[in-house]
Design brief:
Layout (H helix, E strand, L loop, with lengths): L5 E5 L3 H12 L3 E5 L3 H7 L2 H4 L1 E5 L4 E5 L3 E3 L2 H4 L5 E4 L6 H8 L8 E5 L8 H4 L7 E5 L4 E7 L3 E7 L4 E6 L4 H12 L3 E3 L3 H7 L2 H15 L19 H25 L9 H9 L9 H6 L11 E3 L5 E3 L4 H4 L2 H15 L4 H14 L4 E2 L4 E2 L18 H8 L5
Parallel strand pairs: 1-2, 1-6, 2-5, 3-10, 6-7, 7-8, 11-12
Antiparallel strand pairs: 3-4, 8-11, 9-10, 13-14, 15-16
Helix pairs in contact: 1-7, 9-10, 9-14, 9-15, 10-14, 14-15
């Protein structure tokens, strides 16, 4: 089904503009769902004039006309063959529950990011039996809307193939071919959702670096020129913590492989990941630390900050490297580790520090047990009533469906 299908996007931001324009230019119907009536009105001209997707580097522009835009699921979901959620991870659960009655049998529902290690029954029971679910690692572009509802600029495209996975895995080849055709991006299909989750470095890199930068900060506000870079200038302590967390993730993968026979083909070390992803953009590949500090792909990426009343800058605690990547990234992996008996010492140390900054409680007690009052706000298996490794293994292998 290369041509003639219907794609529904949940979300109307940068990514949805780009995907919508590209997919529509290839002959697919593209519907957009948004909760905001203003966005519906602002997108209506794209039903006639389309969305221009301009590639800054290549100097080319493609245009695709949207088919429908609505704040009502019933207007845009039922005809969709492929449904893609392009919204922040904290919105996913509500959207999945609400859309479920409107999704046709045989459709594929996907989220961009989200740490979906499996399909917990509690959340996915509303879908028809033959609806498949997929997880897309992250958007491959640096993309910004130029004129809302009319045009979007692709500033650059990640050359690394995007990790993608499906439950059941049998739909993977077909959907990957569709997506590669629709948006001209290469994907690396892995064998399971949990493999994709353990492969995504954002879960460990962002919290580990943020924790390190906060611990090492002397408390003095910075001038604008003094704001530290996020990746460059990484201390050895931070690099060691990233390596240790990577080892913990890989230990989880090893246990799952041993006890279930699953392959988890995409799970590799953090060092191997960054070297494979950025290749010749890294000037010094001799160590994990040097690979980060000499990666030109990270040039100009600063630590997230907020401006003080006197015009100085301090670290921003309310930003996605903390509020997103902890509850919807590192915390679920720690929960998995506890379920299957893998020590998560460094990951727990990082979460314990950051949860205090967030005024949250995920880990409790001297042993930092994953049983805090706020685990219901995370994507950990425990949040869905999964209490044993046997239950967890059944879910990640689809045996509970």
């Amino acid at each position: 089904m290369a041509e003639g299908g219907c794609l529904c996007l949940l979300g109307a931001g940068n990514g949805a503009h780009c995907i919508g324009g590209l997919a529509a230019s290839k002959g697919w119907k593209v519907n957009i769902f948004t909760v905001f009536e203003k966005e519906v009105n602002d997108l209506k001209p794209a039903l006639t004039n389309g969305i221009d997707v301009h590639y800054d580097v290549e100097g080319k522009t493609v245009n695709g006309k949207l088919n429908n835009v609505s704040t009502r699921y019933e207007d845009v979901i039922p005809e969709a063959d492929l449904i893609l959620v392009v919204l922040p991870t904290f919105t996913h659960e509500k959207l999945l529950v609400e859309m479920a009655p409107h999704v046709k049998d045989g459709a594929v529902v996907m989220t961009v990011e989200g740490c979906w290690w499996g399909r917990p029954t509690e959340l996915f029971s509303g879908f028809k039996s033959n609806v498949s679910f997929g997880l897309w690692e992250t958007l491959p572009w640096a993309v910004r809307i130029k004129d809302y509802g009319k045009s979007v600029n692709v500033l650059g495209t990640n050359r690394y193939a995007q990790i993608i996975a499906f439950d059941p895995p049998s739909v993977g080849d077909r959907v990957v071919k569709q997506l590669e055709y629709l948006i001209d991006v290469k994907f690396a299909l892995t064998d399971s959702l949990v493999s994709a989750v353990l492969s995504c470095p954002c879960h460990n890199i962002h919290p580990a670096i943020t924790e390190g930068k906060l611990v090492e900060w002397n408390g003095e506000p910075w001038s604008k020129d003094e704001i530290p870079q996020f990746y460059h200038g990484m201390s050895q302590r931070i690099a060691d913590n990233i390596a240790a967390v990577s080892d913990e993730y890989n230990a989880i993968a090893d246990n799952i492989r041993k006890e279930t026979g699953m392959k988890l083909t995409s799970v590799i070390s953090n060092y191997d990941f960054i070297v494979q992803k950025y290749q010749d953009q890294i000037e010094d590949k001799s160590t994990l630390r040097s690979a980060y500090c000499t990666n030109v792909g990270y040039n100009g990426v600063d630590l997230p900050v907020v401006k003080t009343d006197d015009g100085k800058y301090v670290p921003n605690i309310n930003q996605r490297y903390i509020t997103g990547d902890v509850p919807f990234g590192m915390a679920p992996i720690v929960g998995i580790g506890e379920l299957i008996g893998v020590p998560m010492k460094t990951s727990k140390m990082i979460i314990n520090y950051l949860q205090k900054k967030m005024n949250k409680e995920y880990l409790v007690g001297d042993d930092l047990h994953f049983a805090g009052k706020d685990i219901g706000e995370t994507r950990a298996p425990q949040r869905y009533g999964i209490k044993t490794k046997e239950q967890f293994y059944n879910v990640i292998q689809g045996k509970h469906l």
